[in-house]
Amino acid sequence: MRIAVDAMGGDRAPGEIVAGALAAVEQLGVEVLLFGREDVVRAELPDGKAPDGVELVACSEVIEMHDEPGVSVRTRKDASVVRAAESVRDGRADALVGAGNTGATMASALLRFGRIRGAARPAIAVPIPVPFATPHLLVDGGATTDARPEWLVQFAFMARTFAEVRGVSEPTVGLLSNGEEAGKGDELRKQVFAQLEPQPWFVGNVEGRDLMTGRPDVIVTDGFTGNVALKTIEGALRAAAGLVFGILDSTPEARAAGEVVTPMLLQGVTDYLDPDTVGGAALLGVDGVCVISHGSSSARAMVNAIGLAVECVKGGVVDRLKQAVAQREASDAR
Amino acid sequence: MPAETHSTHDPVTADEVFAMVRSNLAEILEIDDQQITLDSKFAEDLDADSLALIELVEALEEELGERTVGFSVDDEDLGDLATVRDAVDYVVLRLGGAAA
To answer: Which residue of A1, A3, A36, A211 has the fewest C-beta atoms within 10 A of its own C-beta?
Structure first.
């Protein structure tokens, strides 16, 4: 299996991205195509040479974090992320992994792979950490900010299928709203609720406080709300960690206690809450595998993101999503 | 100014451009093409976001590129296209024809 990696994408690119890609070749037994500016990527390779299983593909352009995604993908034909997406489209690679400009990675996948027929808009399936349990999924994490009700219904079908590919049996789906009762939510939520209600796997509305409880397996929302929810979790966790570690450093007694509990807390944070642990989020609805990793990805995050891409390819996620979309269309027609 | 183009086939009419825009947009947005009229507003009426418009532009460039060498849409002009009629007129103008 061959994975196309945007070596220029991410705050810590190309160093951490290349290191992660090389580690993935060792640990996961995959081949990697590294797309990027030849001189800077080569400088990160051992002795300046691509080892076995790694190929450097020289690109002259880069799409930066602040660039407008759609137009950049159109105008910078030789950008690393665009070329990486083209390699998947052309069958040279099995999946795209990028940690750069999320919109540009998404636009590259959408414009180069095309959409799954019947999938109106793409959605980002983000694994949400759940303490002492397997992460569950928040969909959409920011791909489609202005969504129609039928698109969210489609996201629910696709996300449920993606959860199955990831090993969840009979995944349940909830709708993020401002209250659990059926009548809660704005017009969008009410319409989505009505369309999902007949499905046996739909558990109804869930609230923001349910995001990290692991109940249900999939939480569906529009890309705007989903992105706000993700950033809220991130900020809240950071603040809570700051508070805990601040207390453990506040008095001599607390510092003594901190020497004992801090290593345990740090290990717990790394195991369950560190975004590098899950590595990346899958873009659902495009006709190819695309994993989007977070902007500050480390080498460890890249290994895990590539691992997720491998899982998607092996699980035949694109074909299964096509079936899910078709199944949803058929149920609409009945 | 429209880019210089070179037609290799019969001139493309405004009606043909509208038909192209309508069929491509219907496929991109997964909607019935009858919902799309010349007066449809991309954002308000069709929920077409910027990426959907770029998908449309790329599809038109590919389709028209087969008939008119050098046809392309200037990205800076995309923001001015609010309705389907705007898009049809723009394409026709770049092809050197009469507006819809």
So the answer is: A1
- Residue B15 is among the residues annotated as catalytic for this protein: no
Instruction: For A103, name the nearest residue in chain B, comparing CA atoms only.
Output: B51
Among residues B49, B74, B77, B80, the one annotated as catalytic is B49
CA-CA distance, A327 to B6, in Å (whole number)? Answer: 46
Indicate the residue of A71, A107, A120 with minimum beta-carbon distance to B30.
Answer: A120
Dmax over CA atoms of chain B, in Å, equals 37
pLDDT confidence of residue B6: 54
Q: Rounded to whole angstroms, how far apart are CA atoms A322 and A110?
A: 15
Q: What is the pLDDT of residues B47-57, one digit of tens each?
A: 888 888 888 99
Interface mutation vs chain B, best among A82, A121, A328, most B CBs within 10 Å: A121
What is this structure's pTM? 0.87
Q: What is the three-class DSSP state of A24?
A: helix
Q: Is the CB of A71 inside 8 Å of chain B's CB atoms?
A: yes
Please say whether the dihedral angle defined by the alpha carbons of residues A187, A190, A193 and A195, taken in this order, is positive or negative. Answer: negative
- A216: preceding bond cis by omega (within 30 degrees): yes
Range from A126-135, A249-258, A280-289, B80-89 that averages highest in pLDDT: A280-289
Contact A84, A113 (CB under 8 A): no
Measured at the CA of A177, the angle between CA A164 and CA A227, to 5 degrees, comes to 70
Helix, coil or strand: residue A158: helix
Q: Supply the DSSP symbol for B11.
A: P
Tokens 């009700």, located at residue? A149
Contact A99, A299 (CB under 8 A): no
> Cβ atoms within 10 A of the Cβ of A314, count?
11
Dihedral of CA B94/B97/B98/B100: which sign?
A: negative
Distance CA(A131)–CA(A284), nearest Å, equals 25
Reply yes or no: is the peptide bond before residue A263 cis, omega within 30 of 0.
Answer: no
